[in-house]
Design the sequence.
């Protein structure tokens, strides 16, 4: 039975802790107790770390010490990886049990059993439109034993023993919390679907995250793909239109349409006040559901000491820092999938030809239980390349005809190494170690890495698991459809009927069919490296990166407004020099709207002619300060106008001066106020706000907010279309008062540097707070900090942890 022992309450919280003398006494006792507990933590039980058969892991002998500081941030100390996983699983469950339990239902294919087949999942673990589609895919993964096979693969191609121990411990810790505690979150209190999990479940969740950009993006296409029953006059026989498909593929992978993104910048010592590196990480992730971050510090004395943020259900710190290195990730432009166009055997749509010889597809029949209904059974069809898909979303159909089908290749379906990459980062002592970790593990599925270290180095790498699509291969093997999609989007469509069109392998790749480290775009030790979800090309505007294959991203193409604004800002910071962590904090909340800087003056000048009967609207646009601070007046009006303008006027017609690769940061510019749709966008935006009872010059924060436990909390920041660093993609509800919730945007922020001491200088902020449970004191505390543009001073070193006025120490045991 689990018996947590609370060793100390929050200081200042009860009568006997109010005096300075008692405070110091308790600090001393706590330090002594921690030393004893850490020294005597029992070893891990000798259980099978692979969790074969999916049985629940034993928590016998597992324990950890969890020290909570301000805002409910846990600092977890354990003897080894299994015990560290135990403490991490316990602490995550305490904050996020309902979200975690929901995710475990997803990866076990049980959503329809509990919630019905037609409801939509939260989208955190796949793109499935309905529960039944999600279940059919994940139950298929489970039935095929895909994750079990990956767990059996020896490292480095498979996960390390340390990672398996972490997963075993995490599951045991999660289960132990469930046994001991009553769930109070109304999202799942009393629900029969909140159940113990296995280490295999934890690995399945990791698999889902790994394939988010590949199979996870195509779940509906995989589960709905059906062979044509027989040739018939009504059966489609033609190929998809190349031009329309190419545009759909471009839109599918475009940053402006993504629900995840990020900014990150690392400055070298040449730009800083003390010659040491600096890093600002600003991921843009969903504010609800299973793709939230969660903060912690993980410590195995003498082995590991890292602080940062983990995606829920992850056993490691994904984005973080230690005493020597800090790193962040940005969602990359690399396309982690490709298609193979199959030539089907005459008379048999479930056989395809390779070098003229037929190969049978493999049928995987999957059955999903359904609430209040009969089970649903469907067959999925698999090939040597991967599953047959009927499309990549509704806008990109790939019809299965009597002559042609399409199979999807996702190399991350053979990749459970991402958490080993994070473990390597956690133990790194320099950016060189970060690079060595990327070379050794090759585990990141869909992100870039930006890092800085205490010696003053900066580092960028687009080291990710990508299908080995060289431009030469695409030129030689693309089908007519692929000749349109590959240049436009990086999605290759290769001729699956030719064995000489196989992807091949690089000699330094740990996984066949992927690129090796020598092919990756890398930039070291420039004054700054920056990425805002465009390709690697303008990582540093003075040192453009070129020479990589198209599948990684484009070269010499127009950048997003967020990239342009970000490069302008960080290049100016680097030129100014003498930078400190405080400069990073100011950049995070500068809230400059690049679209406003580029367009507002021209819009204001053209407004009287466009709206001759509305001088107030023109006055508001002219008076706007070009920022999206909570107090900014006119920001909301410009935002609504700009969305309508950008959505109705073709991109090529929005600017008078077009893009130039010779001046990529400053072009295009000069808004085209003569474009059809300009005046209408202004009129419609003004009418929209007035109809909602919102003054055109209302402060942004009065109508861009979230509500937590009845409290309205204003939110600053702006949208992708405005190009704001502090990105906020809110939910528009005119009847509710404007932007009434944040769908995705700024999430876990970290500003990190070093001053020559033993402790990093770090400020962090989790915009949506640590817990999803409205009954938790940490449901909205950091959200209020975010609203006030205030930060958490990270407590990394022991002396700082023990000095926390909120210190609460818990020992958890199995």
Sequence:
């Amino acid at each position: 039975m689990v018996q947590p022992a609370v060793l100390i309450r929050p200081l200042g919280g009860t009568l006997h802790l109010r005096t300075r003398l008692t405070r110091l006494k308790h600090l001393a006792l706590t330090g002594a107790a921690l030393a004893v507990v850490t020294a005597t933590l029992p070893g891990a039980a000798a259980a099978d770390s692979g969790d074969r058969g999916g049985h629940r892991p034993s928590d016998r002998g597992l324990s950890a010490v969890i020290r909570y500081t301000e805002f409910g941030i846990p600092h977890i100390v354990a003897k080894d990886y299994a015990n560290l996983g135990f403490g991490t699983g316990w602490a995550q469950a305490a904050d996020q049990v309902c979200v975690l339990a929901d995710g475990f239902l997803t990866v076990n294919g049980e959503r329809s059993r509990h919630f019905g087949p037609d409801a939509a999942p939260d989208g955190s673990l796949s793109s499935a439109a309905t529960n039944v589609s999600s279940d059919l895919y994940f139950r298929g993964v489970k039935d095929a034993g895909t994750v079990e096979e990956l767990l059996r693969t020896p490292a480095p191609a498979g996960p390390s023993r340390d990672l398996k121990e972490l997963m075993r411990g995490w599951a045991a810790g999660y289960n132990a919390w469930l046994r001991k505690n009553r769930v109070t979150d109304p999202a799942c209190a009393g629900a029969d679907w909140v159940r113990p999990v296995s280490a295999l479940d934890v690995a399945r969740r990791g698999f889902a995250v790994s394939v988010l950009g590949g199979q996870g993006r195509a779940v509906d296409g995989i589960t709905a793909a059906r062979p044509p029953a027989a040739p018939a006059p009504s059966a489609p026989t033609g190929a998809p239109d190349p031009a329309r498909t190419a545009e759909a593929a471009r839109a599918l992978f475009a940053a402006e349409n993504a629900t995840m993104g990020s900014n990150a910048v690392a400055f070298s010592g040449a730009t800083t006040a003390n010659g040491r590196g600096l890093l600002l990480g600003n991921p843009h992730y969903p504010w609800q559901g299973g793709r939230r971050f969660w903060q912690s510090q993980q410590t195995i004395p003498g082995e590991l000491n890292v602080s940062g943020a983990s995606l829920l259900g992850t056993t490691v710190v994904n984005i973080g820092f230690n005493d020597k290195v800090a790193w962040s990730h940005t969602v990359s432009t690399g396309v982690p999938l490709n298609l193979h166009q199959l030539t089907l055997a005459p008379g048999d749509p479930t056989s395809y030809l390779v070098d003229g010889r037929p190969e049978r597809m493999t049928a995987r029949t999957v059955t999903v239980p359904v609430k209040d209904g009969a089970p649903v059974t469907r067959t999925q069809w698999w090939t040597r390349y991967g599953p047959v898909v009927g499309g990549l979303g509704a806008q990109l159909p790939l019809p299965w005809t009597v002559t042609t089908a399409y199979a999807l290749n996702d190399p991350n379906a053979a990749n459970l190494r991402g958490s080993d990459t994070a473990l390597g980062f956690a133990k790194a002592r320099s950016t060189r170690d970060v690079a060595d970790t990327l070379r050794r593990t090759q585990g990141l599925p869909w992100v870039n890495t930006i890092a800085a270290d205490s010696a003053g180095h900066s580092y960028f790498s687009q080291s990710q698991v990508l299908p080995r699509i060289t431009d030469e291969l695409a030129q030689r093997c693309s089908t007519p459809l692929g000749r349109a999609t590959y240049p436009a989007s990086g999605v290759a469509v290769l001729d699956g009927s030719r064995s000489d069109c196989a992807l091949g392998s690089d000699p330094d790749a740990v996984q066949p069919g992927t690129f090796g480290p020598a092919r990756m775009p890398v930039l070291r030790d420039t004054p700054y490296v920056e990425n805002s979800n465009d390709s690697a090309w303008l990582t540093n505007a003075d040192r453009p990166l070129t020479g990589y294959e198209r599948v990684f991203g484009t070269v010499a193409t127009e950048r997003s407004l967020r990239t342009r604004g970000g490069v302008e800002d960080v290049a100016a910071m680097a030129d100014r020099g003498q930078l400190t962590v405080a400069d990073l904090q100011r950049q995070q909340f500068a809230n400059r709207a690049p679209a406003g800087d580029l367009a507002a003056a021209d819009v204001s000048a053209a407004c009287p002619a466009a709206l001759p009967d509305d001088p107030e609207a023109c006055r508001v646009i002219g008076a706007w300060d070009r920022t999206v601070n909570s107090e900014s007046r006119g920001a909301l009006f410009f935002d609504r106008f700009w969305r309508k303008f950008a959505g109705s006027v073709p991109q090529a017609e929005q600017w008078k001066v077009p893009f130039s690769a010779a001046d990529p940061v400053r072009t295009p510019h000069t808004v085209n106020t003569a474009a059809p749709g300009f005046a209408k966008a202004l009129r419609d935006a003004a009418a929209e706000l007035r109809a909602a009872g919102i003054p055109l010059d209302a402060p942004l924060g009065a109508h861009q907010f979230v509500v937590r436990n009845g409290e309205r909390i204003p939110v600053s920041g702006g949208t992708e279309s405005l190009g704001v660093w502090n990105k906020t993609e809110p939910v528009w509800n005119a009847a509710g008062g404007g932007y009434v919730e944040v769908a995705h945007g700024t999430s876990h922020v970290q500003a990190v540097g070093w001053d020559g001491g033993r402790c990093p200088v770090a400020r962090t902020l989790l915009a949506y707070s640590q817990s999803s449970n409205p009954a938790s004191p940490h449901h909205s505390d950091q959200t209020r900090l975010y609203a006030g543009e205030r930060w958490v001073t990270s407590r990394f070193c022991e002396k700082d942890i023990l000095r926390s006025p909120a210190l609460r120490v818990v020992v958890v045991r199995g």
